[in-house]
Amino acid sequence: MKVLVYFALVLIAALGVAGYAGRDLQPEELEARFAQPPSRFVTLDGVRVHFRDEGQGPAILLLHGPRASLLMWEPWAEELRERYRVVRFDLPGCGLTGPDPTGDYSLERTIELVERFADRMGLERFALGGASVGATAAIHYTAAHEERVARLIVVGPDIGFPRSHAMRAGGPASDASVSWGERAMARFVPRLVTEELLRHGFADPARVSDELVEEWHLLWRRQGNRRAELMRLQQYDPGDVGGSLRRIRAPVLLLWGALPEADADMSLAAAREQLVNAHSVRVEIVRGTGALPVLEDPHGTARRARDFLDAGNADVPFDPLPEPDSLRPMEPELPIDGEDTIRAAGLGTGVKGALARG
């Protein structure tokens, strides 16, 4: 969310070409380019969801951040699919999925759709990874479904709870809190703005390729996506992230960009401080990257994720959870012996509790 301030400033210089940039692109036009195999679609509660499901073995479900798409995980899929089943989907209002007909873009709705998608894909017990707001959703989901999430990967630093939210349960953004620049981006997206947004998230802006800019720029202009993003900003409430982190018992990988140093260190320290009940916490700082480490060092971050998953992939799909009296906070990564007998459970009221409890 921090990049939106910078984004709004860049927008001022780009308004001269806004007329063409404001043109919506039709779904069919974009699907012809970006929905090649193994892309598929499934309808969940009225939302036509674009997803990819590749590989064999223990499953990992990946959640992208705002304005991104499942394509950001492509290098991870390439690295993992020989040993793992890699499942990812475009969140509503992002990529090729398009708008949610309910108009609900709250974090609670996102978590509900994650649950529905996991059920439809037959994922009973799986690893879960997320970046930025996708990481925030992954944290709350894991806290509410400890019987279902075997390992958690949190990609930061911008995961929705640093200084601006101070590890508290907040309220949705008001109309007044959504800037004019953010409102303008719902209507006009010059290519220059997309490029500068990405460059601002990289420690080395020279790494932002023309191909990446083109991909983001085109998908952002999918019919309905920009309005959906504005609604997401208006409805955004990170929930009690600290409370959810304290309830997580699964092994956790914190995969952090290193720059800017002050922001990365502050949010990383906050996350570690709250993971008091996690079976283990592994911290990986990706040197030379900024707020978008998955994009800036895609193959390097993929290898780190693979190593973390491999630590739990012995004779059983993933580590079974330890009993409550054996929880050990902040220990080095250690495999657990035993049989994985944990099965899936329904959504119930867990999501509301994960977002609200302290």
Short description:
This protein is an alpha/beta fold and 358 residues long. It has helices spanning 3-14, 18-21, 27-34, 74-80, 107-120, 133-144, 180-185, 191-201, 210-220, 225-235, 241-247, 261-274, 293-296, 298-310, 350-356; strands spanning 40-44, 47-54, 59-63, 85-89, 126-131, 149-156, 252-257, 281-286. Residues 161-177 and 314-350 have low confidence and may be disordered.
Which spans have pLDDT < 50 for at least 5 consecutive residues? 161-177, 314-350
Oligomer: single chain
- What's the CATH H-level homologous superfamily? Alpha/Beta hydrolase fold, catalytic domain
Find the CATH topology.
Answer: Rossmann fold
Average pLDDT rating: 80
User: What number of structural domains do the residues give?
Assistant: 1
If you had to describe this structure to a student in words, what would you say it looks like?
By secondary structure, this protein is of the alpha/beta class. The chain has a single domain, classed as Rossmann fold (3-Layer(aba) Sandwich). The chain is 39% helix and 14% strand. It has 15 helices and eight strands. Strands 1-2-4-3-5-6-7-8 form an eight-stranded mixed β-sheet, sandwiched between helices. Helix 1 packs antiparallel against helix 8, helix 6 crosses helix 15 (350-356) and helix 8 packs across helix 9. The longest helix is centred in the N-terminal third of the chain and has 14 residues, at 107-120. Mean pLDDT is 80; it is low at 161-177 and 314-350.
Properties at a glance:
358 residues; single chain; eight-stranded mixed beta sheet; Rossmann fold; alpha/beta
